[in-house]
Write the structure tokens for this entry.
Amino acid sequence: MTATILVTGFGRFPGAPLNPAADLATALVRRRRPALAGVRLVSHVFATRWDAVDGTLPRLVAQEKPDAVLLLGVAGRADRVRIEQVARNRASVLFPDAGGARRAHLGIAAGAPFFRRGRFPAAALRAALRTHGIDAASSRNAGTYLCNFAYWRALEAADRDGGPRLVVFVHVPPLHRLGLHRLGLHRLGLHRLGRASPRRLSRRCHVAVERARLLAALEALLVSIAAALR
């Protein structure tokens, strides 16, 4: 029986005119690896709006009937990949979405618990990322913006009959920041990257290298998710 994995990302939003999550989600489903031969991959890039997630995610789950959902988002100040352990019942009322709308209430679901745990084999996923040199951090704070909101909604869907069995959210840093910690450059200004790196990497080359490495790591993570579904 073919398993279906839904891979999602987000478009741009205030403060992030380029969102790597959109590119990664789209690129992942185009890659074909023998270990994923029996897996149907579906991608979707959400407009970074509260109403877009609320309107589109339930439709995607009903239409595609995914066995697993991998949500990708960008953490603008991070320099490491993070696997989010929980979604919190909180949504920011301060920051507008990409359409300028603000939430009216701090809570996502009235009367619901403060957090929902992700549904995934944490050790196996971190090991999969490490095969390509990505030492992912374990996080319990997905924020209060659209990333956390979509994670919460996906976990709600998983609680319903016929919902996805696995749900995981992975935060990625901006690609120009990914790998700086590994290179020992995380405390230096990015404008100094070309001078400071022992390999004389330009920012553009650095982004290309890290994008390729991250895509390979995320593909390995998909293989691990598929294995957990068997």
